Each structure stands twice: as structure tokens, then as C-alpha cells.
From TrEMBL:
<dbReference type="InterPro" id="IPR018060">
    <property type="entry name" value="HTH_AraC"/>
</dbReference>
<keyword id="KW-0238">DNA-binding</keyword>
<feature type="domain" description="HTH araC/xylS-type">
    <location>
        <begin position="159"/>
        <end position="255"/>
    </location>
</feature>
<dbReference type="Pfam" id="PF12833">
    <property type="entry name" value="HTH_18"/>
</dbReference>
<dbReference type="InterPro" id="IPR037923">
    <property type="entry name" value="HTH-like"/>
</dbReference>
<protein>
    <submittedName>
        <fullName>AraC family transcriptional regulator</fullName>
    </submittedName>
</protein>
<dbReference type="GO" id="GO:0043565">
    <property type="term" value="F:sequence-specific DNA binding"/>
</dbReference>
<keyword id="KW-0805">Transcription regulation</keyword>
<dbReference type="InterPro" id="IPR009057">
    <property type="entry name" value="Homeodomain-like_sf"/>
</dbReference>
<keyword id="KW-0804">Transcription</keyword>
<dbReference type="GO" id="GO:0003700">
    <property type="term" value="F:DNA-binding transcription factor activity"/>
</dbReference>
<dbReference type="InterPro" id="IPR050204">
    <property type="entry name" value="AraC_XylS_family_regulators"/>
</dbReference>
Length: 255
């Protein structure tokens, strides 16, 4: 059976420099990792992914708060995959690429699935590779759309919005506040934000609240009621219901 190594990692804020004898796919759901290889240097974020060919030297440094999906791909195992030779060509050279909203949503879903069912990492890895191939195969057809997204992205500085949100998770957050940060009207902001991320602003805020809550649930001794308050829920009951819907597990069980 084909075997791939898939890990959900938090990359520490320390510089690592190495190479390895397998290809690697790097996708992030939150946070930032600085990555450099062969003269290219970019930030791996929820909007930018990276393909690292086998034996290519690279350096990286995380921010300590990233959530990063790392897929190790032994070259010999690609040959037995459907369209394996086409997927292999994706790794002809080092490559950074724009992560579209659909792929970002899939990455979120598969990251959660991996945490709940580690034994399915091989099946999840194959699904992720096929999705990536389908997207990158169609990439030239999407140039015009990507130019539009980049223009929107310049107005919607998502990293700045994330930083603001992280400081105000306990507050009542309104679309009007987020729009003002980007100097846009609420209606225009809402449309642009959905085009860029694939979700509404309030759905994005809810997701960020829950992602932060999960870190506190798993790595702190705070009560669930206290955590609910810290991430902006009015009571523990509504927090627990939202947590269970999103992660498919109750916070008490996740702890």
C-alpha cells in the first residue's frame, strides 16, 4: 500500500536548514512561516503554499503560532498513483503558489480529520495531492481571476485583520469594524472578503474564535466557561455547541 507521511505541525520560531530525499508539500491554515530555497524566499500562510522537490536545500522559521500541514512524498510512491507522473512534474522545481479558497477550506477540513483519525493519514494525503494537482493543472486558466483576487488582497490585508481579531476575540465584533480597518464600505468589504476567503466575515471570525479556543482547551487548565468568555461566546452552552459543530467533538472530550 502506498504510504505518505502527513503531519499537522506547529513550526517553532527557530531557523532550520536542511534537505531530504523526498518531495514535500507545505500548506498552512493559520500563522506564518518564512521559507527560503534556491534564491526564492516567501512567507507560507493560509494564502501561500509551497512545493519542495526532493534533495533541494531549504531554510525555514515559523512564528510559533502557525498551524501547518506538512506532507512528505517519497518519489517512488508517486508512480503507483493515478496521474502519478503528472503529479511528479509539479515537483520539477521549487514553487510557491497561491492557495485558492476552495483548497484552503479543504486543508482546514483535512487537518481536522487527520487530528481525529491519524490512521487515515495515507488516504488523506492522496486526496490532498489529487486536489492540489487539479488546482495547479487549471492555474493558467485562472490568471485573470487571480489578478482580481490580488487586487482585493491588497485592500484586505488578511494578516493585519487576523492580528486585530486575535486582540478582540472577547469583544462583540461587527462587519462594520472590519470594513473600517480596510477603508471599505461594509457591503463592498463583505463581497470582497467572501471572494478572497470563500466564507463570510462573520463565519471567518467564528472559525478564528474556535481555533483559538481549541488551543486553550487542549493546552490550558482554564475552565470551559472561562475559555468561552475569552473567545467571545456569551455562555458555555453556546460555546460547546459551536465547538462540537465545527470540530465534531465536544470540548470536554477534546480536553
Amino acid at each position: 500500500m502506498v504510504q505518505f507521511e502527513l503531519h499537522n505541525r506547529n513550526l517553532a520560531p527557530e531557523q532550520v536548514s536542511h534537505s531530504h530525499d523526498f518531495h514535500q508539500l507545505i500548506l498552512a491554515t493559520c500563522g506564518v512561516t518564512e521559507l527560503a530555497m534556491e534564491g526564492q524566499s516567501e512567507r507560507v500562510t493560509a494564502r501561500r503554499g509551497c512545493l519542495i522537490p526532493s534533495s533541494r536545500h531549504h531554510e525555514y522559521q515559523g512564528d510559533g503560532s502557525n498551524r501547518t500541514l506538512v506532507l512528505d512524498i517519497p518519489v517512488k510512491h508517486l508512480a503507483v498513483l493515478e496521474k502519478g507522473s503528472e503529479i511528479e512534474r509539479l515537483f520539477d522545481k521549487p514553487r510557491f503558489f497561491t492557495v485558492p479558497p476552495a483548497l484552503n477550506q479543504l486543508t482546514h477540513a483535512l487537518t481536522n480529520q487527520l487530528e481525529q483519525c491519524p490512521a487515515l493519514q495515507n488516504e488523506i494525503a492522496v486526496l490532498l495531492l489529487r486536489a492540489l494537482y487539479m488546482y495547479l493543472q487549471d492555474e493558467p486558466k485562472q490568471v485573470a481571476d487571480q489578478i482580481g483576487v490580488r487586487c482585493i488582497s491588497e485592500r484586505l490585508d488578511l494578516e493585519r485583520l487576523d492580528a486585530w481579531l486575535d486582540q478582540h476575540l472577547a469583544d462583540d465584533i461587527r462587519v462594520e469594524q472590519l470594513a473600517a480597518l480596510c477603508a471599505l464600505s461594509p457591503g463592498h468589504f463583505h463581497a470582497c472578503f467572501r471572494d478572497l476567503t470563500g466564507v463570510t466575515p462573520l463565519a471567518y471570525v467564528q472559525r478564528r474564535r474556535l481555533e483559538h479556543a481549541r488551543t486553550l482547551v487542549r493546552h490550558s487548565a482554564l475552565s470551559l466557561g472561562h475559555i468561552a468568555m475569552l473567545v467571545g461566546f456569551r455562555d458555555q452552552g453556546s460555546f460547546s455547541r459551536a465547538y462540537r459543530r465545527y470540530f465534531e467533538i465536544a470540548p470536554s472530550s477534546d480536553r
